[in-house]
Design a protein that fits this description.
Strand order of the largest sheet: 3-2-1-4-5-6-7-8
CATH architecture of the largest domain: 3-Layer(aba) Sandwich
Distance between the termini: 51 Å
CATH superfamily of the largest domain: NAD(P)-binding Rossmann-like Domain
CATH class of the largest domain: Alpha Beta
Structural class: alpha/beta
Number of domains: 2
Shape: elongated
Largest sheet: 8 strands, mixed
CATH topology of the largest domain: Rossmann fold
Length: 268
């Protein structure tokens, strides 16, 4: 990307992804970042006061001559937002940041379309280590692809060009390791909280250790516990504790079967 002038960047949306993109781009000093949202939202005030971005309400006001457009909205709104853009800069790149939406959601009327997907979970209050976050790219042309790889290198050490199917598969994996795992944290917190509401904190060292092991071990090799050992005595004790949690009891059984199946396949 050219660095001899300030590039104009439009970010549409004011959620967590928009926040962390805007924060990083503002820190690079050679971009002018403007935030647009379809309606008033209290979150816009932080973009203006804390990040010093221009904030504009109304998609009809999106400037037609920016260099880069990030559409950071829910998948179901990407196509509608893209269709309402009136872009005059033929070199502009319009991209969405979704892991599960196709690039074609951006339509055919725009000159250069792309996907710029940071493979990470974002909460506004998080400190984000961009250098460690993979950025997955898909573009309408090799020229656009090359420009986005250069842009991504200002965020991360890991920028990859992937097809839609590859990106969607990674998104599925992300849901499993993040959303599903966090749902189990919620369940564990609820269960141990029945005896002491603060006991979940005692599990935090184990959570950290489990994650750290995956830096050096294959997930199968890192597996431990009663299901792996086929320790039916412990399994029965756990199921008895879950008598009043019917959904969680079913899930415990299913996950234990999954672990046992994975271990059998590992030794087949």
């Amino acid at each position: 990307m050219k660095k001899n002038r300030s590039q104009n960047i439009v970010i549409i949306g004011c959620g967590n992804v928009a926040w962390h993109l805007a924060s990083h781009l503002q820190s690079l000093k050679h971009y002018t970042v403007s935030i647009y949202n379809h309606q008033k939202n209290p979150a816009l005030n932080d973009f203006k006061t804390k990040l010093k971005c221009s904030v504009i309400v109304g998609l009809d006001k999106v400037v037609p001559d920016a260099d880069l457009y990030f559409i950071c909205v829910s998948d179901s709104y990407i196509a509608d937002v893209a269709s309402r853009l009136n872009i005059k800069n033929r070199n502009a790149i319009v991209m969405h940041t979704s892991g599960s939406a196709k690039r074609k959601e951006l339509g055919r009327q725009l000159p250069n379309t792309a996907v710029f997907y940071p493979l990470q979970t974002f909460s506004k209050s998080d400190t984000v280590r961009w250098a460690e976050i993979p950025v997955l790219i898909e573009a309408s042309s090799k020229a656009t692809e090359a420009k986005l790889l250069k842009l991504a290198q200002q965020f991360t050490k890991t920028a990859r060009v992937l097809s839609y199917k590859e990106r969607l598969t990674l998104h599925l994996g992300a849901v499993m390791v993040n959303n599903f795992t966090n749902a189990l944290y919620v369940a564990a917190s609820d269960v141990v909280g029945e005896t002491n509401k603060n006991d979940f904190k005692l599990l935090l060292p184990m959570i950290r250790q489990t994650t750290q092991k995956l830096e050096r071990l294959d997930p199968r090799a890192a597996q431990t516990g009663p299901a792996k050992r086929n320790d039916t005595v412990v399994l029965k004790k756990h199921l008895q504790l879950l008598t009043t949690h019917s959904d969680l009891k079913k899930l415990y059984k299913q996950l234990s079967k999954l672990i046992a199946h994975q271990q059998r396949n590992n030794h087949a």
